[in-house]
Specification:
The chain has about 575 residues and is α+β, with helices and mostly antiparallel strands. About 30% of the residues lie in helices and about 20% in strands. Helix 1 packs antiparallel against helix 5, helix 8 runs parallel beside helix 9 and helix 16 runs antiparallel to helix 17. It holds the Pfam family SBP_bac_5.
């Protein structure tokens, strides 16, 4: 970095970016949906008590309008650089802004803190919005973005978050792609990339690419996880971890649309059915985390409606090839895929709120290969493949699963039991290891699992966000063993979001070509081919693509359900 602070180079922090990726945990991103009953009591607050402290919703005596958002899990941090969790993103999206936004409910890009943006070759040009202030009163300038970026990826920066603090988003969102940032005054930046990289502008719209105040970075350091300072439509009023409540108040100086309510309260209620009851009784205004039974509850409520849209996500079971020799044989992985009745899981356990998956990319993302079908339920074919691979007598392995339901897996325990039953029919014994979500993420990020359930909600609707983020090891070529299609979790710089430890060179080459091409037709062809390989090689059992479901009170107007980003609570009004 130059003495005047107007240029920051990638070369000095490459090693730090790799370490961050190796130590961070995958959180399935923007999700956190649930099932009818959960095996874990989240200790959520009593919403009746919450309502009594809110002072009502915009009645005639001038009480504040309070929007109450019910969800299944609390946010463990309020720093978007400290987590990959969707529960974190739901709140930080209200507190912080990104340079570029997604149009609510769409995948198209629009202005955010940047009013103009372009990408040509390896150069991104950004013009910033003037007159924007942070919650601490500081004016937003290009220096804030540079400080935010360096805090995320540059170990030489005095205020770098630290390898144990920053999440895996640092490298694959910004760090691996930015070579240098040139600042020209307060409101103009030129970003030089390390290569042509098609998703870059979309990456700038991801929740993890939001902007901290430089002054707040220098004042709070990692304590920003409890003291967020953004430019967003709401600001933190109260963080009550003990009762799992977060109260936000309207930012009167917000530069954008809204906010249209005085306060937002995030309420944690662990069971879906209880959350749905709270919506129906008027104690909550919007809820997520809906499975079959709770969705019916919402549909039957006289004062609420079920809002549904096609999701952009994938639910899967990852084979850890680094842990189990059996899983290094693709015939075994294929056998397990044939043996698990994913059609029954989707239709009977998930009650038709999802469709069977066939590949890493959901159907509504560029590069999804429509010629691929899900693995059919075929125990005879599974048994034949096991015998061919030398495991005709079966074997045993541990299946790690989260207890907390997610939208892509609303009934994780029942799904795990179904998998165990299906595989038992072909002589494979499954030991189910249930964990709460936080410990589960750490356990699997360390590669301690044999196999595990996980899933992913898109951050930017680009195929790279699935194909590279989840199934590319992101290590240097000389770290790979020739002829081996897996890599150890302790490899320097390893991408722990790749829970299967898969390292197929042909697949990796195609995905890297897809990153570097700006031709949409070429990208589609490359990802089609990469999905074919991923389907055939089966590093995952492809489970489902899930719909997005929300319960919304009839007194709410302006709510826009979104498969990317959001929730857009600044647009919501209460009648």
């Amino acid at each position: 970095m130059s003495q005047d602070g107007n240029s920051v180079s990638r070369r000095r922090f490459l090693s730090a970016a790799g370490t961050a990726a190796a130590t961070a945990a995958l959180a399935g991103c923007t999700g956190g949906n649930g099932e009818e009953t959960t095996t874990e009591d989240t200790g959520g607050a009593d919403t009746t008590e919450t309502e009594s402290t809110d002072g009502g919703n915009g009645d005639d005596n001038g009480s504040p309008q309070v929007l109450r958002y019910g969800r299944g899990s609390h946010s463990p941090t309020l720093d978007f650089q400290n987590s990959t969790s969707g529960e974190v993103a739901k709140v930080t999206e209200q507190l912080y802004d990104t340079l570029i936004n997604f149009e609510p409910g769409q995948s198209t890009l629009t202005q955010g803190l940047a009013t103009e943006y372009s990408l040509e070759g390896q150069t991104a040009s950004i013009t910033l919005r003037e007159g924007v202030t942070f919650h601490n009163g500081e004016e937003f300038t290009a220096d804030d973005f540079v400080a935010t970026y360096r805090r995320f990826v540059d170990s030489d920066y005095e205020y770098y978050g630290g390898d144990d603090y920053v999440s895996a988003y640092g490298p694959f969102t910004l760090g691996a792609w930015i070579d240098e940032i040139q600042v020209d005054g307060d409101y103009s930046m030129t970003i030089q990339l390390t290569q042509t990289y098609a998703p870059f502008l979309r990456n700038l719209a991801m929740f993890a690419a939001a902007v901290h105040s430089q002054a707040a970075i220098e004042e709070y350091g990692t304590d920003l996880n409890k003291n967020p300072v953004g430019t967003g439509p709401f600001q933190l009023e109260n963080l009550d971890d003990a009762n799992e409540l977060i109260r936000l108040s309207a930012n009167p100086d917000y530069w954008g649309d809204g906010p249209n309510v005085d306060e937002v309260v995030f309420v944690t209620i662990g069971q879906n059915s209880t959350r749905a009851q709270s919506l129906a009784s008027g104690e909550l205004d919007i809820i997520d985390g809906l499975g079959a039974q709770s969705s019916i509850q919402v549909e039957n409520a006289s004062n609420a409606e079920l809002v549904r849209t096609e999701g952009i996500n994938i639910g899967y079971m990852a084979f850890n090839m680094a842990s189990r020799e059996e899983f290094r044989d693709k015939r075994v992985r294929q056998a397990v895929s044939y043996a698990i009745n994913t059609e029954a899981i989707v239709n009977e356990i998930y009650s038709g709120f999802a469709t069977q998956a066939s590949q890493p990319l959901p159907p509504n993302v560029l590069g999804h290969n429509s010629d691929l079908d899900p693995y059919p339920y075929d125990p005879e074919q599974a048994q034949s493949l096991l015998e061919e691979a030398g495991y005709g007598d079966g074997f045993s392995f541990e299946l790690a699963t989260f207890q907390n339901p997610r939208g892509y897996n609303p009934s994780p325990i029942q799904t795990a039991e179904t998998v165990a039953s299906n595989l038992g029919d072909i002589g494979i014994e499954v030991d189910i290891n249930q964990q709460s979500f936080g410990p589960f993420l750490e356990y699997t990020a360390q590669g301690r699992h044999d196999a595990c359930f996980l899933g992913w909600y898109t951050d930017n609707a680009d195929p790279d966000n699935f194909m590279y983020v989840l199934l590319h090891p992101q290590v240097e070529e000389d770290q790979l063993t020739e002829g081996q299609d897996w890599v150890s979790f302790d490899t320097e710089g390893y991408n722990t979001s790749n829970r299967s430890a898969w390292a197929n060179q042909e697949y990796m080459d195609l995905v890297e070509q897809g990153q570097s091409s700006y031709d949409e037709a070429e990208r589609e062809s490359l990802y089609n081919e990469a999905n074919q390989i991923a389907h055939d090689e089966a590093p995952w059992v492809y489970l489902d693509y899930a719909d997005e479901l929300r319960g919304v009170s009839s007194r709410v107007s302006g709510f826009q359900i979104a498969a990317i980003s959001g929730p857009y609570l600044n647009l919501v009004s209460l009648e």
